[in-house]
Amino acid sequence: MPLIKESNFHPPILCKNYHLQTIYPALFRSVNGLNYERERLELPDGDFLDIDWERKGSKQLVVVCHGLEGDSSSQYVRGIMKKFTSNSWDGLALNFRGCSGEINRLLKAYHSGETEDLHYVIQYAIKTGNYNHIVLVGFSLGGNVVLKYLGENSGNLLKEIKAGVAVSVPCDLEGCGLEMERKENWMYLNRFLVSLKKKLKEKSHLIKGQIDMERAMSAKTFMVFDDAATAPIHGFSSGLDYYEKSNSLQFLHQISIPTLLLTAEDDSFLGKSSYPFEIAQKSDHFYFESPKYGGHVGFYQRTPHGYSYAEQRAWEFISKHGPNI
Fold it and tell me: For residue 322, is pLDDT > 80?
């Protein structure tokens, strides 16, 4: 019953506010000491993915997936990459389609349930780097991708994948979409929608009547935007169909390797259904830890090494549960 009932995360007194935990690390943190080497992968469908490497000559690799409208330069990605590579691991930061600074070629982009690109990248890494020990780490949307991938492939998971960690995950997409409509989240919601609409507009020449562009561009909620754009672009019948098929909640009980979900109680992005206490209690492999504080992908703490609690906790978990480290 791997439900972690007590967390060791204790933020500074002045940093317990969830807005501060969410905003401060994103805007004011700077993770140095990384020298990414970018590689472009040409995909079978004619599109491309940009991945960023930190190579140490190891046979152990951490693959990191960013959140909605993030990328490999997001400080939480750089933080986890630095934590692992400073311990002599290789690191690979995946930029989802259209998130590397260059718009992707196809109308298709990325979404919360898209796991095929992650699988392609893992296969490529194994083939070219001969890795025998891979762990997956995902944040927010990227965390949903990681959890869904591990659950839906539990019966035929690549043998090199040994463990996973996910942070601040919207496990129930519909519930989280509704939470984002609350007044306290308006600034986050607006920021995401502005970015998503900008990318959609840049692809207007590819749309050719496939979506209701006017409705998508006027959307004021995720629910409307996903129903108008995300769903039809990616083959779903509606926004609700997209949420139902892409949420990781339905796959958590199938996870068959040690996997940690770290989600703060005060994460304003998430609804109650994204806190899978009961699933963790019944699982042999899925661990759930929910500190009182932390915000959304925050977990800021004042320590000499500069790592967030999420980065420190991910390394501790992998060190304990991942074999041959």
Answer: no
Element (H, E) at 135: strand 133-139
- Alpha-carbon gap, residue 196 to 180, rounded angstroms: 15
317/321 Cα distance (integer angstroms): 6
pLDDT band at 252 (very low <50, low <70, confident <90, very high): very high
Give the Cβ contact number of residue 267 at 10 Å. 28
| Sheet (strand 37-42) strand order | 3-4, 286-289, 259-262, 161-167, 133-139, 60-65, 90-95, 48-54, 37-42
Confidence (pLDDT) at 8: 83
Query: Per-domain residue ranges for the chain?
Result: 3-171+253-321, 173-246
Taking domain 3-171+253-321, whether its CATH number is 3.40.50.1820 is answered by: yes
- Residue 86 pLDDT exceeds 70: yes
pLDDT at 120 over 70: yes
**Max alpha carbon distance in the chain (Å)?**
54
Of 118, 117, 120, nearest to 164 by C-alpha is: 118
Average predicted confidence (pLDDT) for the chain: 95
Q: Which amino acid is at 200?
A: L
**Rounded Cα distance, 57 and 64, in Å:** 18
Question: What span, in angstroms and rounded, lies between the C-alpha atoms of 118 and 140?
Answer: 15
pLDDT above 80 for 240: yes
Torsion angles phi and psi, residue 26, rounded to 5: -70, -35
CA atoms within 13 A on the CB side of 255: 34
Nearest to 37 by CA among 62, 54, 59: 54
